[in-house]
Amino acid sequence: MREKQLRRSKAVFPIGTVMKLTDLTARQIRYYEEQKLVAPQRTETNRRMYSLNDVDRLLEIKDYLAEGFSIQAIHRFYNRSKDTKQDTQQLTEEDVRRILYNEFLAAGGFESAPGEYPRF
Fold it and tell me: Known SUPFAM superfamilies for this protein (predicted)?
């Protein structure tokens, strides 16, 4: 899964290709960058390079605008999404097992010592 995310975040598309993929003008794309809705990487010569994630984001922005949302509303939506992702904690498989085990014990009226697991 990480490899797929890495491939999607690799900046490989120049603005001309992104324009063709999204049907947006260079001016629109640069405006969304100014509004901090998309953040392309830059080459040594300061050319913008976009990733698949950036292209997806631009298409989402285009759809939101077509539905009547304002740039400010889209900005708030993305900021809220970013905050939610930061608040979400990744649980390991061991954490999930421990939580489920404790919930089953509580539902059955049993108690166990912390860290104690049943022996089957």
Answer: Putative DNA-binding domain (SSF46955)
Strand order of the sheet with strand 48-50? 13-14, 48-50, 41-42
Interval 68-117: pLDDT, tens = 999 999 988 888 866 555 544 556 777 777 777 777 777 776 655 555 55
Measured in degrees and rounded to the nearest 5, phi and psi for residue 82 equal -65, -45
Whether 24 contacts 58, CB under 8 Å: yes
Phi, psi values for residue 13, rounded to 5°: -105, 125
Residue 16 covered by a domain = yes
Q: Does this model's pTM top 0.70?
A: no
C-alpha 48/C-alpha 31 separation (Å) is 13
- DSSP one-letter string for 78-120: HHHHHHHHHHPPPPPHHHHHHHHHHHHHHHHT----TT-----
Q: What's the domain range around 38?
A: 1-107
